[in-house]
Amino acid sequence: MSNGITVTLPDGKELVLDANATVFDVASEIGPGLAKAALAGRIEGELVDLRRPLGADCSLSIVTTKDELGGSIIRHSAEHVMADAVKRLFPSAQVDAGRTDHSEKFQYDFLVDEPFTPEDLERIEKEMNNILSEGAVFDREVMTRDQAEELFRGLGEELKLSRLGDIPADAEITIFRHGKFADLCRGPHVHNTKQIGAVKLTEASGTYFRGDENGPKLQRIYGTAFESKKALKSYLARLEEAKKRDHRRVGQDLGLFHMDPLAPGSPFYLPKGMTLYNELVSFVQDLYPKYGYDEILTPQLFRADLFKTSGHYDKFHDDMYWFEGSDVGEELGVKAMNCPGHCHLFSTGKRSYRELPVRWAEFSRLHRNERSGTLNGITRVRSFAQDDAHIYCEPDQVAQEIDSFFKMTAEIYDKLGVDGIEMAVSTRPDEFLGEPEDWDVAEKALIDAVERAGFKCNIKEGDAAFYAPKVEADFRDVLGRAWTLATIQIDMAMPGRFDLRYVGRDGELHQPAMLHRAILGSLERFIGIYIEHTGGDFPFWLSPIQVVILPISDRHQERAYELKAALASKRVRAEVDDRSETLGFRVREGQTQKIPLTLVIGDDEVERGTVSPRLRKSKQAMDAMSAEALVEALSISNAERRKSPFA
Predict the structure, then answer these.
(1) 75 assigned to active site
(2) Which of 102, 251, 486, 597 lies 20 to 30 Å from 88, alpha-carbon distance?
(3) What confidence tens digit (pLDDT) does each residue in 436-453 have?
């Protein structure tokens, strides 16, 4: 074939096809089964639509529902089907934009005469199912700007004409059609609508065009889609479980924290929540001597000069809080991160290689001007603390410091029951500080460290902060949701911006390497994630109330309070529930409050000085044991931070 191209498949097999062949043509060449299952392709690792012409020799893999991205492609395609259904039922509706992240759901914004009602959503969902049964093929079409303008002007889609203006002049304009519906889109999409196995619309809400409150008021519809009804049913069950575990609900039910409109994005910690918070802080602090950290505390307020030096003034000015000082022309910033203060402190003294590495850790309140629409319970707040630390070391010490970070992270996560961690390295973004070659060296150092720690290293292209490549520890909770927890970064900018120096072994001045590291990250965010992961059923050592003591009657109360005092003397957190409720009610109340251990005190316990502990998830009490033995066992469990009181 004179004008043929060679396509290399994942197994190394090569196919020779016509130069105009598409990804779908390759799937069909491999076999009819794959063609039927194909959703998209990866050309040289780039996700592309099935209709994309190959054009040149390349490596190619076919994406199906078995691929992690398959669900996103199905939901993106269902998004278009939803817009089609709305246009069929509400012909005067104008279609705005969908969403870019289809990992769990899809959405579209519409300009309509009246807000959508629950009954409207039912009608739209029914119409979507009709469209799915039609099996219409998704077609990809490349247009000139004039052709696209003519298309959308003819359809009366004024919002689309505005969106068309956002596309750079030199960018390719692609339209996707199925049936009579057409929209601006880069894809990819499924081959035909029958590959969208099941859809569900979840809610509608109001929004504004381009987020401008002075602009047109739009209606947004959310939904989700999967390859089968079974997969959709499983997802909806997980969604229902997520509602039960919502940290805002559980946090309120367990009396951990309070959120108030008078302090948006700033939690009030209640006594039980403060216990949880302090136990986490103490846990990390107790490991500082083992891993060589010193704790410091830096000011809450700095003159703007500090953040101008660090680069945060230009990059994050709108995300910080600023006000005028008492001196003329003085501008003060509320601390939003610890690194500038740590760098300044390092620069205030003469440093020698003999004192490196310097490892400074700090728990202090930070404040960021998060937009009100992004706030979410305690997982996205304006006031928070981080288990933050910065390491200043010689360049050849970087590898061992990163290795130490992995060991400390593993130790902390093991005690918390956080497992199944995946590691990824975020590489430099389009805008960055420093030199590209320095970033290349730093990124390789991080990748090597991840692999030394025994992890497969995933790559997040362009996801790093502007000043440093980063290792991210990604954790999937019990609901399968991914969260980034621990991070470590090699800073490519701040040591130079602050002119940090140390006297080296040769007597000359050298610039230290700088690492940023966090293991829990934001404490508020971690607590929110951890509440939802555990459902509030915390490890014994971390539970705000560890033991509830239930006297059967008034004559047993004195012994109950004696036992509480004995436990408190060993720093075991206990409370007595002597309310005039039935014993069964109080037992259930302790279980509802997720208290790990229940002790019922009756005549036998008073006379014999024994207790028969009952674990929260057990229907039967354990064998009787002396109260002294119990107190000692629970004290040891706390000291060793055990997950269960009798592990």
Answers:
(1) no
(2) 102
(3) 888 888 888 899 999 998
